[in-house]
Amino acid sequence: MRVVIIEDEQLAAERLVYLLKQLDTSAEVVKHLFSIEESVKWLKENPWPDLMFPDIQLADGFCFEIFKEVDYKKPVIFTTAYNQYALDAFKLFSIDYLLKPVTSDSLKAALEKFKTLQPAANVNYKQLSTVFDEASFKSRFLARAGQKMFFVASNEVNYFQADDKIVFLIDREGNRLVVDYTLEKLQDLLNPKEFFRLNRQVIARYTSIAQIKPYVNSRLKLLLRNGTKTEEVILSRERVQDFKLWAEA
Questions:
Q1: CA distance 43 to 49
Q2: Read out DSSP for 24-76?
Q3: Does this chain's domain 2-132 share its CATH topology with 140-247?
Q4: What is the CATH number of domain 140-247?
Q5: Which residues contact 75 (CB under 8 A, 6 or more apart)?
Q6: Closest CA relative to residue 18, chosen from 98, 81, 95, 104
Q7: I need a labelling partner for 54 at 20 to 30 A (CA). Which of 65, 211, 224, 248 fits?
């Protein structure tokens, strides 16, 4: 069984390879691809594998962009860090999906399903891209200031900022409101095309970034719009490459 893995996290890919070899000695990982661009090029130039494991969110965008460029018709098992939204849709268009971190039991069940089911001859993965684009990302938040509560549309949010154990929503006018979510939970709720986790304290919407400057030790300094003012946020060196790929997606 020829297998291709599309995964931008090296450790996650190595774990999947290890589990595959433990569960199926016939599995041969013929290629590990890291990005949408690399995957499109390889799939256009090489025979398709028997089974493909694409991570849903790659550094340069969602893996569904691959299927817009390649009319792929072979079985797919998606891997994902997402907990809820759109997962039912994945089942419609794939053999299965695996939540990260992938476990031996979940992979074993997915492989058994792959071997048992006769995949549809004309799977349309392009349709899944449409379904995912329409998935229920958070469209508004109920935020509070003191005893008062307000609705804030997601497109009115500039950024979220964690301060100790409190997370604040900063809107376009610079209002600083409290929301009952952790930044980790917000990453699941926000559209990753719109928002990016800059560091441990801040998730920002792309429209909030007023300016980007080089900073010491290959880092970046970002100026975020805060009403009529700006707030400086430092992007770590480890996040710079992912940020650039996200910015140009």
A1: 9
A2: -TT-EEEEEE-SHHHHHHHHHHSPPPSEEEEBSEETTEETHHHHHHS---S-B
A3: no
A4: 2.40.50.1020
A5: 50, 51, 52, 94, 95, 114, 119, 123
A6: 104
A7: 248
**What is the chain's pLDDT, residue by residue, as a tens digit (249 residues)?**
999 999 998 999 999 999 999 999 999 999 999 999 999 999 999 999 999 999 988 878 788 889 889 988 888 998 887 655 445 546 556 778 888 889 999 999 999 988 887 554 456 676 666 666 555 578 899 999 999 999 999 999 999 999 988 999 999 999 999 999 999 889 878 888 889 999 999 999 999 999 999 999 989 999 999 989 999 999 988 889 889 888 876
Q: Which two tokens stand for residue 195?
A: 């928002």
Tokens of 93: 């268009």
Gap between the Cα atoms of 233 and 67, Å rounded: 36
Sheet with 140-145: strands ordered across: 148-153, 140-145, 176-179, 166-171, 157-163, 202-205, 195-197
Domain ranges for the chain: 2-132, 140-247
CATH architecture of 2-132: 3-Layer(aba) Sandwich (3.40)
